[in-house]
Structures are given as C-alpha cells and as structure tokens.
Design brief:
Blueprint lengths: L1 H30 L4 H25 L2 H6 L4 H17 L6 H46 L29 E3 L5 E3 L3
Antiparallel strand pairs: 1-2
Keywords: Membrane, Transmembrane, Transmembrane helix
C-alpha cells in the first residue's frame, strides 16, 4: 500500500504542475474579489507552473526514483505540503496570505530538498560504480579474490617471449646496388 501511494504521488507531480495553476484561475473566478488580484494572478500562475514543473523534474530524474518508479517519503511530505498550500491559496479567503507565505517557503524547501536528494543519490551510485571498478581492477592484477583463472599467466615456469620493435631508421640497397635511405 505504501509503495502504491508513493507511485501515485510520482504521477501526481507531473499533473500538479498543470492542474494547480489552473486551480488558481478557477478559484479566482469562483472565490476571488477585486480587480487588482487579477494582476497578481497573471504573475502568480506562471511562477507556480514553473516552480512545480522544476520540482517535479528534479524528483523524476533521481536514479532511485527511476529505479523504484516511486517518489520518496520526503518528497511526499514536502511537495505534498506545497501542493496543499497552493490549493489553500486557490480559495482566496482571509487565510490566503498565510497560504501564500507557506507556499513560498515550502517551494524553497521542496526545491533544495529535491536537489539534496538528487546529489545524494548520484553520490551513492558513483560510489557503487567505483567499488565495482576497483574490484574488477584488483581481479585483473591478481590482487583480488585469489581466483587464478582470470589471470593471464598462471605458472611461474612458463616461457615468455618479448618482441621489441626497433624505431631507428635503417638503410637498404635496391636492385641497382645503390644505397638509398628508406625515408626518401
């Protein structure tokens, strides 16, 4: 049940970036008062859309979210509170200023929480990659698990032939007996 809630919330993140700014407009038509509020609405709706879209993007690009196909509980709490504050703004009642301040603060917290989780997940993934890389490198050099099947030479008494390439210029003679430089 818990995983279902987190997965549903992940899908709601994308929908909320569109639905909640529309809710602000619908709420203004239904509950709004005064003409100056319309100017505030023209400014607020795009900012709300951009903020919610950026937070949703930061959550969805995280490696653990893509692997689990579910948001974290921290995302559910922080971003869910942000969505509740935006819904509260849409009623345009006497507590609209309180919900407005809470929405701004929660948007900042949601953004930095998402950035922090993205960096943490990336660091964990990089650490796991480096541990695997070091393990494979140790196996190839023979310092690893003691498995001799992966080593190129298993016996000490094997004969090894090393062929070195000479890089200096040599002179040669062509069919007429004249010596020519091979570089010409």
């Amino acid at each position: 049940m818990a995983m279902l809630i987190r997965r549903a919330f992940l899908w709601w993140l994308v929908a909320a970036a569109v639905v909640l700014p529309i809710w602000l407009g619908v709420g203004w038509v239904t509950f709004g008062r005064g003409g100056w509020g319309t100017l505030g609405l023209v400014i607020t709706v795009p900012i709300t859309f951009i903020t919610l879209a950026v937070v949703a993007l930061l959550v969805r690009i995280r490696p653990t979210v893509r692997a689990d196909r579910a948001a974290s509980w921290m995302d559910v709490g922080v971003v869910g509170a942000l969505h509740a504050a935006v819904i509260g703004i849409g009623f345009y009642g006497d507590s609209g200023a309180f919900f407005g301040v809470m929405a701004i603060l929660l948007a900042i917290v949601a953004f930095w929480s998402s950035v922090w989780q993205l960096i943490s997940d990336g660091a964990k993934r990089m650490e796991a990659t480096m541990v695997e890389f070091e393990r494979l490198a140790a196996e190839q050099t023979g310092q690893g698990s003691g498995d001799t099947a992966s080593r190129p030479f298993t016996r000490v008494d094997e004969e090894i032939i090393v062929i070195q390439e000479r890089t200096e210029r040599t002179e040669r003679t062509d069919g007429g007996g004249e010596r020519t430089d091979s570089g010409q």
